[in-house]
Amino acid sequence: AARRGGGVATAAFTPVAPNTADRVTVPRGYRSDVVVKWGDRLFKRSPAFDVDNQTPESAALQFGYNNDYVGVLPRGRNRALLVTNHEYTDENLMFPTGRYDSATIKQIAIQSHGMSVVELQRGSRRGSWTQVRPGSAPLNRRITGTTKFAVVGPAAGDPRLRTSADPKGRTVRGTFGNCAGGTTPWGTVLSGEENFNGYFDKSGSLDARYTRSYARYGLTGSGSRGWGEVDPRFDLSKEPHEPFRFGWIVEVDPSDPRSTPRKQTMLGRFKHEGANVAIARNGRAVAYMGDDERGDYIYKFVSRRTYDGRPGRAARRRNLELLTEGTLYVARFTGDGTGDGVYDGTGEWIRLTSDTTSYVPGMSVADVLIDTRLAADTVSPTKMDRPEDIEPNPVNGKVYCALTNNSNRGTSYPTDEANPLAQSRTRSTLGGPLETKSGNRNGYVLEISPAGGDHSATTFGWDLMLVCGDPDAPETYFAGYPKQQVSPISCPDNVAFDSVGNLWISTDGAQLGSHDGLFRVPVSGSQRGHVQQFLTVPTGAETCGPLITDDGHSVFVAVQHPGETDGATFENPSSTWPGTDDFARPAVVVTYQD
Ligand code: FEO
Ligand code: CA
Ligand code: CA
Ligand code: CA
């Protein structure tokens, strides 16, 4: 068992100042290495990356684009499996102008999505990690936009999931828009299919049977990718059911490269940010999930069967079925009034359906799971400010959710105590003045306390532990910690915990003039609310998938979309990070003590 409290879990560090450097900036006394980057070889047969000669076949054998989620599963003392997903592609930054025809670009893009499993070994310094040589890494895997997935759970085989290529509705090719994720206690990785609507276009009219559903999911058929031109399943006019096969949580078993990854329909269909599992006291697996859209909801799933913690294949086989049966809930937050000086209150989990019984009048189990947003709309849950990563803290048993922002709060979405800001202060350039804008621009961190500390309970307490922004802005709040001593933080996105239960927060789209970054904040004791910035990422990038190893000696982050700024192109990049080429390459980085 790992020693608790080592490394960055307890070490003091001098916070990184807000900055706009085109690099990964870490505290004095730390260094960071690129572990694996876009295009790196994963197999003996992988060609070396050549930006001028990319092919769909080579992309399928190389590390994909725009790594987001990061899981690190230890294998013995000196090895680990890195599992990442590849959310989306940015063709303007991936391809030299005029070098490729548009069909080839689309095919390469499809293969550059998905997930990667990469074997790692400890490096020469404590806390450092390197990629195992591809020929010696039998567990390496690429899952792409065409990899075969099994659809499982109660909605598998539903007529709405059937297509001309899959008349049984049980086998889907590929995964797209994979955002955050989580590692399960049984050693699998969950990844959320988020903005899947953007992958679909239309050549004619839309199927009138699905008008309401398409509208609720943003399926307008105006996807800008034009993938329908190279594969008709992305054309809603030709294959109206294909979008029902996306928007799920996918589960991958990285220990078996030949296993078929699965789409878990019992966890509902929405713009899944990710899913993180805790085992409740009664043994049930509880998955917390956010639907990342302005005004959408927070969900949880509670399994019917209980987790089997015994070693061996039989237990593992049972655990692999835990997510297929259970109950799906959506959250309602009630404030206790702001007279007490804090945004807090109580809440309830409203059940939507079990695997056998729907609790939504007029909707079947499959209806609720496929059109989860429509089902939830009928029970008046709380419309949240873009619920992103939500994760149980294994040390204190509370649950933490990043609510990134909502520029429309206070206008199209009325405020409530859980989403209280109708205006907030941002700055457009580092050192510039704070300006008041409408809506919640900098986000919150929501803390949920399950009743009796029981993850399977249907009631909870809650509070906004952080109201993010510049500490100089009067609306900000850092759990009561003295504001002069905290780092400015804006647009929390992914969350993680170290071995002592500190919350780590990565940001996306920070609105304070600095690049995005990673922050540590204790959640208990005298340091509760003491937000300190641990690193910043290069120009145009967001910080993703933070992971702190249990020994506290390694901090992994995914640097997603470096160089993605207005007007940037392959020939005129705004970032050339990590400096190996004259263009930017998304990559996973590990930081450790020098
Ligand atoms: Fe892909 Fe919700 O961020
Ligand atoms: Ca209150
Ligand atoms: Ca995210
Ligand atoms: Ca996370």
UniProtKB/TrEMBL annotation:
InterPro entries: PhoX, TAT_signal. Residues 407-438 are annotated as: Disordered. Pfam families: PhoX. PANTHER family: DUF839 DOMAIN-CONTAINING PROTEIN, SLR8030 PROTEIN. This is Phosphatase. It comes from Nocardioides aurantiacus.
